[in-house]
Design a protein that fits this description.
The complex is a heterodimer of chains A (434) and B (313). Chain A is an alpha/beta fold. Chain A has 15 helices and 18 strands. In chain A, strand 17 and strand 18 form a beta hairpin. In chain A, helix 8 packs parallel to helix 10. The radius of gyration of chain A is 21 Å and the shape is globular. The relative contact order of chain A is 0.16. The C terminus of chain B is likely disordered. Classes of the chains: A alpha/beta (434), B alpha/beta (313).
């Protein structure tokens, strides 16, 4: 079957341009990209998708998600996480190792890849633990894990507090071409904090996590990258101070890349007032000044990637006292509208925004994807930047519904996701509204 | 008649100046009941109050029990050790089970900030926050306000110093909110490790040196030092704290002659407050305890007995 995607605006994140084109998909690949109106073919085997007024982007890649399998299948599975991903326009996910058991061995990696093949939806790029059991002590077998199919290593959820261990990890990882993703947190400084330490924590009486808790570790990773010349990728940047440190390091030529999550440029610590546990994440929501700095960091390409840190939790972990509730929110299904809000605001161009959701994470992970070209795989998403919709819990494809954006009207949704020429997600008509 | 339009008392932030005046005035008229031979009125007959204490408490719990009983409410008392919480039941489930028994009011003490807010969303019964984590302890602030007004005749324009671990004190937070709302000027004092970030946003001034902080103040409020906090590197030793931040006779030389000294209890004698100050002429610590019952009676009355104003005699 041939699919004709008519008259969409194709975003090329690498060249930073957008052009009105028709896309012809055959045998799972993009066979032709033509000027709008040039394609005349008709026939019973031709399926037409009208994309006029819509935006066609390379299938998005989220380099920071928690799929919870193995061990916490009641929160999410690789299959349900995949459904959430395609609903959000994603075709590839890098999944963090804090499962049960921890992904610190090739057997767990192989299990994850097997489950991903079985669910037959998105590409899953396993990220293994840096240290055995994520305990921060002994390196995992990077070579063996690489052979099993791992694309990166991270002790995400925990910081590698021993600087010597982190130094050896980045040195050793480079040999295997594995990206090292650092969760930057000084856990002594964080203590038993549950939100950003500042005016709001002082006012509402919750224990704080200072911005410095993140920044001292960002500075350490920069120092180690400078010392060794080996790259480090900083996960979920949340503070103005971190943005400034990374900016200076990049200017100096230190091999640092960084990501932030949509909630760090969409919400600030005032969201915690009222003790909504869906406003509890780690790192915590920071101040409005930090939010502005994150936006600037994205605009100036200090922050290379938007990754969701999709962290599904069930009501068992969230319908609790704020102190006791788990950190984290889901993010796959709201990343596109929250990011397009930055385009609307003029912070990013549309190609610039898509770059941070596709080609940049692909390059940092060292995987294919992030571009639309003839003969390339037909992995793409069709977005409607004008569509406004109020998110309902019932719409959410993820097994968990822990999102602070439920009930909010967001603009710019994913309409259709295609992987290998197969339409794996189409937004229901009732979701499209009038 | 002045109206008290609240289902719950979760924190001082929700109360207006008029609300606070009403609570204190009501406490004033109820206080006398505790001085009678027969210390009981039928005002809350047929009402049930659950005292739900996830955290240990002697003073606050006894005070609430006394207040409810003097108004003839039926009371049930639950503590964490004897409740299903130790069996793994969540707060929301416990709340739903309690709700099924249809109490009129739940008094909650809990170690997590915001726990009463969570409970208030789940149940129809009114909630009184009897202390949530390091967040608030509004009934303590109200009894402190009552005591100050009783002694000083007013709150507006008074200068109040609060000394101790401000960052981790729900008593301090509630008092700061209440006192500033009522027009007092609040100065906080203590080692820098115990002063929260951006505390000025609460409308207070910081003077670390205790002697300087109490000079020219009308009220000195001393907070209990939680001795276990020493392990959290907030202060090096009890001895050092007592020497440099304790309220003792030497420091009191700088205080006004008509100052009153308050403490929410229980006191650590010789740590945050010297015995001769706690027991001395400036101390109103036991007045606070007595007033606590009256203020809690007032709150019970206003929250669940408002329709029965005719029975109040």
């Amino acid at each position: 079957m041939t699919i004709w995607i008519r008259d969409g605006k194709i975003v090329d994140p690498v060249r930073g341009v957008m052009q009105r084109r028709d896309i012809i998909v055959e045998r799972g690949r993009i066979s032709r990209i033509l000027k709008a109106g040039a394609f005349k073919e008709k026939g019973p085997k031709l399926r037409t998708i009208d994309a006029s007024g819509k935006v066609i982007v390379p299938g998005l890649i989220d380099m920071h998600v928690h799929l919870r399998e193995p061990g916490h299948e009641y929160k999410e599975t690789i299959a349900t996480g995949g459904k959430a991903a395609v609903a959000g326009g994603f075709v590839g996910l890098a999944c963090m190792p804090n499962t049960d058991p921890v992904n610190d061995s090739s057997s767990v990696t192989e299990f994850i890849l097997r489950q991903a093949r079985k669910s037959n939806l998105v590409k899953v790029y396993p990220v293994a633990a840096i240290t055995k059991g994520q305990k921060g002590e002994t390196l995992t077998e990077f070579g063996d894990l690489r052979q099993a199919g791992v694309e990166g290593v991270s002790d995400d959820g925990f910081a590698v507090s021993n600087s010597e261990v982190m130094r050896r990890a980045i040195e050793y990882a480079r040999y295997y071409d594995l990206v090292v993703i650092s969760h930057c947190e000084d856990t002594n400084l964080s203590g038993d904090g549950v939100m950003h330490e500042g005016a709001v924590s002082t006012q509402i009486g919750l224990r704080g996590i200072p911005a410095a808790s993140e920044e001292v570790m960002v500075q350490r990773e920069i120092s180690l990258a400078r010392l060794t010349g080996c790259p480090v990728h900083i996960a979920h940047v949340s503070t103005a101070g971190s943005v400034e440190l990374i900016k200076r390091a990049k200017e100096e030529g230190v091999p640092i890349t960084a990501e932030t999550a949509p909630h760090y440029f969409s919400l600030d610590h005032r969201a915690v007032i009222g003790y909504d546990t869906n406003a509890k994440m780690n790192p915590p929501l920071r101040t409005p000044e930090d939010v502005e700095a994150i936006k600037r960091g994205l605009a100036e390409d200090v922050l290379d990637v938007i990754a969701t840190d999709h962290a599904p939790h069930s009501p068992l972990e969230k319908d609790l006292e704020f102190d006791r509730a788990a950190f984290g929110i889901i993010g796959l299904e709201t990343a596109v509208p929250l990011t397009l809000a930055l385009v609307e605001e003029g912070v990013l161009s549309l190609p610039g925004a898509i770059k941070k959701l596709s080609s940049n994470p692909a390059a940092i992970l060292g995987v294919t994807g992030g571009s639309l070209r003839e003969e390339g795989p037909a992995d793409l998403a069709i977005l409607d930047p004008e569509q406004e919709y109020t998110l309902k819990a019932g719409d959410i494809q993820s097994k968990s519904k822990n999102s602070p954006f439920i009930g909010q009207t967001l603009k710019g949704w994913n309409l259709l996701t295609m992987i290998g020429g197969r339409i794996v997600w189409k937004r229901a008509r009732e979701h499209l509204g009038g | 008649m002045r109206k008290f339009n609240h289902k719950d008392l979760l924190g001082m932030g929700q109360l207006t100046v008029e609300d606070i005046d009403l609570i204190l005035d009501t406490a004033g008229s109820l206080k006398e009941i505790s001085e009678r031979e027969i210390k009981k009125v039928p005002t809350l007959r047929g009402k049930s109050v659950v005292h739900f204490f996830y955290e240990p408490s002697t003073r606050t719990r006894t005070s609430f029990e006394m207040a409810a009983k003097r108004l003839s409410a039926d009371t049930v008392s639950l503590s964490a050790s004897g409740s299903s919480m130790v069996k793994g039941e969540t707060l929301i489930d416990t709340a739903r089970n309690l709700q099924a028994m249809n109490p009129d009011l739940i008094v909650l003490r809990h170690s997590s900030g915001g726990a009463p807010h969570l409970l208030a969303k789940e149940v129809k019964a009114g909630i009184i926050n009897a202390g949530d984590g390091i967040n608030e302890h509004p009934t303590q602030a109200l009894l402190d306000l009552y005591t100050i007004r009783e002694r000083k005749g007013r709150i507006k324009g008074l200068k109040v110093a609060i000394i101790g671990d401000i960052a981790h004190s729900r008593v301090a937070r509630s008092n700061i909110i209440g006192l500033t709302k009522m027009g007092a000027q609040v100065t906080i004092s203590g080692p820098p490790t115990m002063i929260p970030l951006q505390v000025e946003s609460l409308g207070v001034k910081v003077i670390h040196n205790v002697a300087d902080a109490i000079e020219d103040r009308d009220v000195i409020m001393v907070l209990r030092i939680q001795l276990e906090r020493q392990s959290k590197i907030l202060f090096p030793s009890i001895r050092e704290y007592a020497t440099f931040f304790g309220l003792n006779r030497e420091v009191m030389k700088k205080a006004k002659r008509d100052v009153i000294v308050m403490h929410p209890g229980p006191i650590n004698r010789g740590v945050e407050i010297a015995s001769d100050v706690a027991d001395g002429p400036y101390s109103v610590i036991l007045d606070q305890v007595a007033n606590g019952v009256a203020v809690r009676m007032a709150l019970l009355y206003l929250l669940i007995g408002g329709a029965r104003s005719d029975n109040l005699d």
